[in-house]
Write a structure and sequence with these properties.
2 domains, three-stranded antiparallel beta sheet, 329 residues, Chitinase A, domain 3, Triger factor/SurA peptide-binding fold, 12 helices, four-stranded antiparallel beta sheet, alpha+beta
Length: 329
C-alpha cells in the first residue's frame, strides 16, 4: 500500500482539504520581539521559546484579562506546555512528509498566498508586503510557514482516514447516553410581584391582606407591569417586575417549581414562601423539548466521525513520537 502512494495524491489533499487561514500579524510581531532559546529538539530540529510564545500568545492575552496571581501563572505554564506539544507534533509530521519524499509544487503555495492577500488585504499585494516588512518578516519566510501548514494538513488528511458513516447502532447508543445534549434549555419569561410578609411594624396580617388586594386588582384586569411598579418590593420593581428570560436554578426550588408549571399568560395565586408573598405571571416559555433520534442523527454521526478521526490522529502521532528522539528543555 505504501508503494502505491504518490506525491501528487498528497498534493491534491492539500489543495482540497485545507481552509485558508488569515495572517496572524500580531503573532508575527510577537515572535520578532522575543529573545530566543531552545525549547525542544526533535530529531535534530530545534523548536525555540519564541515559537512557543508565538503560538500561545492569543490564549495568554485572554488569560491575562481574566486571571491574576498564581492561577494566572499556572494557566500560562499549561498553555505554553500545550503549545510546545503541538509544535513537536507538527515537526514530527513535517519530518514524516519529507521522509516519504512528498513534494508541494510552488504554485500551490503561491495560490495560497494569493488567496490570503485577496481575502485579508482586499487584493492589495503592496499592503500585504508592507505588513510583513513592518514586522521584520520576509515574503520567503511567510511562504515557508504556509508550506509547512500545507504539509501538516496534507499528511493528516492522508494518515487520518475514517469511515464516512457511523453505524446505526453506535448512533442510537450515543443518543441514549447523551439525551441531555439534544434537549433545549427550558426557560420562562417571568414577571413577579413580591410583598414582604413583615414590615417594620411587624404586622404580617396586614401585609398578607395587601397581597390579596394586589391579586384582586390583577384578577380584575389590572396591568401586571404597572401594579408591580406600585406595590412590589422586589429589586425588579422599577422594571414592572420583569425578570426576563430565566432558566432552571435561578429561583428558589419552591418558587421555581411553581413558576415553571404555570400556564403562559395566567396570574398565579399568592405563593407564601420564606415569610414573603409572591404573585407570578409567565409571559412566554421556550425550550425544554428533546430532539428525536431522527432529528439528532446527522449531528451524532458527524460527531462520531470527528471523534474517530481524533483517535486515529492521536494514535498516529503517538507512533511518530515512539520512533523519534525528542528532548525538551
Amino acid at each position: 500500500m505504501r508503494n502505491l502512494i504518490r506525491p501528487i495524491a498528497v498534493v491534491s489533499l492539500a489543495v482540497c482539504g485545507i481552509p485558508l487561514l488569515p495572517i496572524h500579524c500580531a503573532a508575527f510581531a510577537q515572535e520578532a520581539q522575543q529573545v530566543d532559546g531552545i525549547a525542544a529538539i526533535v530529531n535534530g530540529d530545534v523548536i525555540t521559546y519564541s515559537q512557543v510564545r508565538q503560538l500561545s500568545a492569543p490564549r495568554e492575552r485572554l488569560l491575562r484579562s481574566q486571571l491574576t496571581g498564581q492561577e494566572l501563572e499556572k494557566q500560562i505554564l499549561e498553555t505554553r506546555q500545550l503549545a510546545l506539544k503541538d509544535l513537536i507534533d507538527r515537526r514530527l509530521i513535517i519530518q514524516a512528509f519529507k521522509k516519504e519524499s512528498y513534494q508541494i509544487p510552488d504554485h500551490i503555495v503561491d495560490q495560497r498566498v494569493h488567496d490570503i492577500i485577496r481575502e485579508n488585504f482586499g487584493g492589495d499585494r503592496n499592503t500585504f508586503i508592507k505588513t510583513l516588512e513592518a514586522q521584520n518578516y520576509s515574503l520567503g519566510e511567510f511562504k515557508e510557514k504556509e508550506l509547512e501548514r500545507i504539509m501538516v494538513q496534507a499528511m493528516r488528511s492522508h494518515n487520518v482516514k475514517t469511515q464516512m458513516i457511523a453505524s446505526p447502532t453506535k448512533i442510537e447508543d450515543y443518543y441514549r447516553k447523551h439525551r441531555s445534549e439534544f434537549t433545549a434549555k427550558e426557560e420562562i419569561k417571568l414577571r413577579l410581584i413580591m410583598i414582604s410578609g413583615q414590615k417594620d411594624t411587624g404586622n404580617a396580617q396586614a401585609q398578607k391582606a395587601l397581597a390579596e388586594e394586589v391579586l384582586g386588582k390583577l384578577v380584575n384586569g389590572g396591568e401586571f407591569e404597572q401594579t408591580a411598579q406600585i406595590y412590589s418590593e422586589d429589586s425588579t420593581r422599577d422594571n414592572g417586575g420583569d425578570w426576563g428570560w430565566i432558566g432552571r436554578n435561578t429561583l428558589a426550588p419552591t418558587l421555581e417549581k411553581f413558576a415553571f408549571n404555570m400556564p403562559v399568560g395566567r396570574i398565579s395565586n399568592i405563593v407564601d414562601y420564606a415569610g414573603n408573598y409572591y404573585i407570578f405571571k409567565v409571559e412566554e416559555k421556550r425550550g425544554g423539548t428533546t430532539k428525536s433520534l431522527a432529528e439528532a442523527r446527522g449531528d451524532i454521526e458527524k460527531k462520531l466521525i470527528q471523534d474517530e478521526a481524533q483517535q486515529i490522529q492521536d494514535r498516529w502521532i503517538a507512533t511518530l513520537r515512539e520512533k523519534a528522539y525528542i528532548r525538551t528543555f
